[in-house]
Amino acid sequence: MSQSVRRALEVVELLAGTPRSPSDVAEVLDTHRSTALRLLQTLVDAGYARRLPDGRYSLGYRMIGLAQRAQEQFDLRAIGHPHLVELTAQTGCTTHLAAIDNGHVVYVDKVEPTDSPRILSQIGRPVPLHTASAAKAILAHLPSDRLDLLLDGWAFTRHSVSTITTREAFLADLAAARERGYAIDDGEYEDYINCIAVPVRDATGDVVASVSVTALRALRDLDSLRADLPRLLQTATDISRDLGWVAT
Amino acid sequence: MSQSVRRALEVVELLAGTPRSPSDVAEVLDTHRSTALRLLQTLVDAGYARRLPDGRYSLGYRMIGLAQRAQEQFDLRAIGHPHLVELTAQTGCTTHLAAIDNGHVVYVDKVEPTDSPRILSQIGRPVPLHTASAAKAILAHLPSDRLDLLLDGWAFTRHSVSTITTREAFLADLAAARERGYAIDDGEYEDYINCIAVPVRDATGDVVASVSVTALRALRDLDSLRADLPRLLQTATDISRDLGWVAT
DNA sequence: GGATGTGTTGCACTGTGCGCAACACGCGTG
DNA sequence: CACGCGTGTTGCGCACAGTGCAACACATCC
């Protein structure tokens, strides 16, 4: 729709990764140096980026202000957050809250234990549908037409040896998750990470989100995580109830 | 430099205020409905905005993720935050950390007490130089050339009866603040709010930031705030020391 | 039935954002 | 010191992106 805006946002994403030099930005955007510079200046003007003393550019302070405002507008996150914090405290694992947003499954919240072993997920980023348990827990309970909509055109890219790479196998996995009551990621994205996830329902009873517990396999393998399943289910129930859901 | 990007960011700011309908956005931007819609869709695509069930648009989840990344890049904020939290706990007031960024004084951090009496400041937004004590505390210690740079073209707009509206009077106020060791905002922006602020120094001894305590006059008048001055000074010293400053 | 607001699309015009080139500047290095 | 390298700035001309507009389908509400 809008090329320059798209580029600008691309720059923001770039700076979110790590501070960059102007020429660096120009190269990644595959554009002229002056163009990148003009873009950066616009962003700096708005407070979305800032120039570091060493000449590189990073995200600006305005970002934080925006996020604070954003959080106030996110009922789901606001409701879920305290529950995630508790779950993280109980399990010692990184926990995620995921939801469907604009045709993607995105992480809505993420709480890491204090001794955080760096999980690479990022709030607001689309979740890989066919590997993340948080995605599976939602997809498993979606009506088939909405599921098809999300899955159409989805590439079952292999990320590790255990990645599910065909739609048929994936649908079978979803069915298993539905029956089981929780979804699994058995090192399907990063082979050294596994997670389990359960669905969250809203007032109408529809599954709209999921909660997941993630851990390094070396610290907590799948069986170990399963031991926390009751806590996980309790958290999901709590959030669902806060969303207005009443057990049937 | 870039009109469409500027517009896009304007939309983001708009949504940060409160969720808006498309036609609403179009009107504010003074642009055609379809243009606004196209813009919104680009933002939604990127996760920076989202469509609410009722058709309005608000900020997107990606905002939060970006802010988390941003915070990791902000040494000053990262360093100052815990001290602000403590100061807020001690005083029961809203506290701010302000710094110079891109030719403006901006709030870098803000901590509100749990029973938050809604102060309207926003992180990343430029601070009104001639009213906010947080700005004065910094300006009072700036070399005159840098001060002139910031002040040139600044309009001393009257916001309340006590607003200082001339450059001369303002410079006198700064001198007083410098001598006194702390700066004051005596209801100069909103007449029912007053604050005091003290400077923060970096490793080179330059004043680069300030900490302020803000309160409703009805709850804490200036004299009452002054009682917390030792705590405020201690906080500023702590942050300065964390920044590498050593007392002379 | 009409009124209102959203979302979409095709088209034509215009202006804006782009690439480019040239220059000033600061910094470190051989 | 001259040189290379990267940043920052500016003027220019062109192409095309982005805009405005109009017309449509579609919901919802009264």
Distance between the termini of chain A: 45 Å
Largest sheet report of chain A: 5 strands, antiparallel
> What is the CATH superfamily label of the largest domain in chain A?
GAF domain
Quaternary state, please? homodimer
Tally of strands of chain A:
7
* Percentage of residues in helical conformation of chain A: 40-55%
Spatially, the strands of the biggest sheet of chain A line up as: 4-3-7-6-5
Average pLDDT over all residues of chain A = 88
By CATH reckoning, the class of the largest domain in chain A would read: Alpha Beta
Radius of gyration of chain A, in angstroms, nearest whole number: 20 Å
Number of folding domains of chain A? 2
Q: Beta fraction of the residues of chain A?
A: 15-25%
Architecture (CATH level 2) name of the largest domain in chain A: 2-Layer Sandwich
What series of H and E elements makes up the topology of chain A? HHHEEHHEEHHHEEEHH
Number of helices of chain A: 10
Structure explained in plain terms:
2 copies of one chain form a homodimer. The first copy, chain A, has 248 residues and is α+β, with helices and mostly antiparallel strands. Chain A has 2 domains: 3-65, Winged helix-like DNA-binding domain superfamily/Winged helix DNA-binding domain (Arc Repressor Mutant, subunit A); 74-242, GAF domain (Beta-Lactamase, 2-Layer Sandwich), CATH 3.30.450.40. The first copy, chain A, contains 10 helices and 7 strands. The first copy, chain A, has helices at 3-17, 22-29, 33-46, 62-73, 75-91, 133-139, 144-151, 167-180, 222-226, 229-242, and strands at residues 49-51, 57-59, 94-101, 104-111, 183-186, 193-201, 207-216. In chain A, strands 4-3-7-6-5 form a 5-stranded antiparallel sheet, sandwiched between helices. The first copy, chain A, has a two-stranded antiparallel sheet with strand order 1-2. In chain A, helix 2 crosses helix 3 and helix 5 packs antiparallel against helix 10. Chain A is globular. The interface between A and B is large, with 51 and 52 residues. Chain B binds a DNA duplex (30 and 30 nucleotides) through residues 1-5, 21-23, 31-35, 37-38, 41, 55.
